[in-house]
Design a protein that fits this description.
With 469 residues, the protein is an alpha/beta fold. It has 11 helices and 19 strands. The protein has 2 domains: 254 residues, FAD/NAD(P)-binding domain (3-Layer(bba) Sandwich), CATH 3.50.50.60; 154 residues, Succinate dehydrogenase/fumarate reductase flavoprotein, catalytic domain (Flavocytochrome C3, Chain A, domain 1), CATH 3.90.700. The chain has a 6-stranded mixed β-sheet, with helices on one face. A hairpin with a 2-residue loop joins strand 6 and strand 7. The longest helix is centred in the last third of the chain and has 21 residues.
Length: 469
């Protein structure tokens, strides 16, 4: 039987992990297994623990031959090619290859630490070869890791908001955090920062993006406000990434301001036309399979008037994608749909007519792979899945920019270690979204955030424990 819990501020710690999401948990578990005394400081209340990880669904994984729920194989070079395509080459290839290669050993490690995967999926996501889906989603993963961590003696403090890391030359001397109105100070041997990006601080977003950012929705936790990130950057810790780059997707415009999560994402774009509030198309909806291109649509919508877009589909496309949590707007005619969506009816009818006239032979239509069914003589074109929108009833969704996490972060090396003035900070490591900009210069690849968090969380935990020992 365990004795009474000793106050965190009255104990000595080998490692303090700041942030209780996937990356922080992987670091804590790895360090605890190496014999370290570990404390996690989690800003959120216990029911909301886990940061953005509780909204995730899957993990992108390299593998040679079938592995767990994954079929066939997904090589390092193909994985890297997919990443280079979405980032337009803006990545640190050494760190990217490290994340990709190490992902193969992570999947069995995850299973050994309580994570369960569901059988491979078919359908519009077409990810059975590349992405392993968690049984119970991200919340199932987070809860499994907390159970494992508790069994290893890791202590967790909730509603513990870190406000400052005191640097003494090139080491962290102390951590200050507040909890229940009291301020506490710790001096651990090692520190891992896994506290996410700054996306929930909409004032910071607006400084980077301009006033348009006030119209953005934040898909994940309201607790990722970048307090620790700003504190370290202000003290000269090396940074990486651009504050205007982020994982931003187009989500249902009816989603809440914060914490709507994965269910607000819309996967219907490839089978639609997307228009702005003037009922004009503005980009190729069929550019690539959705898991490789969904993350560009947040930025595309952000560039439209009022930061809003509108998806238009017809009856024959309604069952081709995973439904959103909100039902689509429905109408018997395009004009009626336009009125319901506050679009100019004549203009929407003309845009659809122009699109329909540009569609050709649709006999090769194949919803789960690039089919080359494209428009002719239309700007912008639709290069795949281009079928006329003709079959009533017609359906529509509004789109807004949903920010998942920001890419301005802490620069790390292959050991997940942070630096100041080109010197390593001897006892500071970073993992997860707070350092993901080291690899994601722009764009996003489905499931890759969890890969980065798992790989670098484990590395950070191993290095931090070795330093403490």
């Amino acid at each position: 039987m365990k004795g009474p819990k000793v106050k965190a501020s009255e104990q000595t710690w080998d490692l303090v992990v700041i942030g209780g999401g996937n990356a922080g948990l992987c670091a804590a578990i790895t360090a605890a297994e190496a014999g370290a005394r570990v404390l996690i400081l989690e800003t959120a209340p216990k029911p909301y623990r886990g940061g953005n990880s509780r909204h995730t669904r899957n993990f992108r994984c390299m593998h040679h031959g079938p592995l767990g729920p994954l079929v066939e194989s997904y090589t390092e070079e193909e994985y890297l090619s997919d990443l280079l395509k979405v980032t337009d080459g803006k990545t640190d290839e050494g760190l990217a290859r490290l994340a990709i290669r190490t992902s193969e050993e992570c999947l069995p490690w995850m299973q050994d630490h309580g994570v369960r995967f569901q059988p491979s999926l078919s359908g519009t996501l077409s990810l059975a070869r590349t992405n392993a889906f968690f049984l119970g989603g991200g919340k199932g993963l987070v809860n499994a890791y907390y159970r494992t961590a508790q069994g290893l003696g890791v202590q967790v403090e909730y509603e513990a908001a870190v406000t400052h890391l005191e640097l003494d030359d090139n080491r962290v001397a102390s951590i200050t955090y507040t909890q229940n109105g009291e301020t506490h100070r710790l001096s651990p041997t090692s520190v891992v920062v896994a506290a996410g990006g700054f996306q929930a601080d909409t004032d910071w977003l607006a400084r980077a993006w301009g006033p348009a950012a006030k119209n953005f929705l934040i898909r994940g936790t309201p607790y990722n406000r970048g307090v620790v990130l700003a504190d370290l950057l202000d003290q000269g810790i090396e940074q990486v990434g651009d504050p205007t780059q982020c994982h931003a997707v187009a989500i249902d415009g009816r989603a809440p301001k914060f914490d709507g999560g994965i269910v607000t994402r819309l996967d219907c774009v490839p089978f639609s036309i997307v228009v702005n509030n003037q009922a004009e198309r503005f980009y190729d909806e069929g550019e690539d399979v959705w898991p490789k291109r969904y993350a560009i649509w947040g930025r595309l919508v952000a560039a439209q008037p009022d930061q809003v877009g509108y998806v238009i589909i017809d009856a024959k496309s309604l069952k081709l994608f995973m439904p959103s949590v909100f039902p689509p707007i429905k109408a018997d005619t395009l004009e009626e749909l336009a009125v319901k969506m506050d679009l100019p009816p004549e203009k929407l009818r003309a845009t659809v007519a122009e699109f329909n006239a540009a569609c050709g032979d649709i006999s090769g239509f194949h919803p789960t792979e690039l089919d080359g069914v494209s428009t002719t003589g239309l700007t912008p074109p639709k290069t795949n899945w281009a079928r006329p929108i003709t079959d009533p009833p017609f359906y529509g969704y509004s789109l807004r920019t949903g920010v998942t996490f920001t890419y301005l972060g802490l620069k790390v090396d292959e050991n997940a270690q942070c630096s100041i003035g080109n010197r390593p900070v001897t006892n500071l490591w970073a993992a997860g979204e707070t350092m993901a900009g080291s690899i994601l210069g722009q764009g996003y690849l489905a499931g890759f955030g969890m890969t980065i968090g798992t790989v670098f969380g484990r590395i950070a935990g191993k290095e931090a424990a070795a330093h403490a020992n």
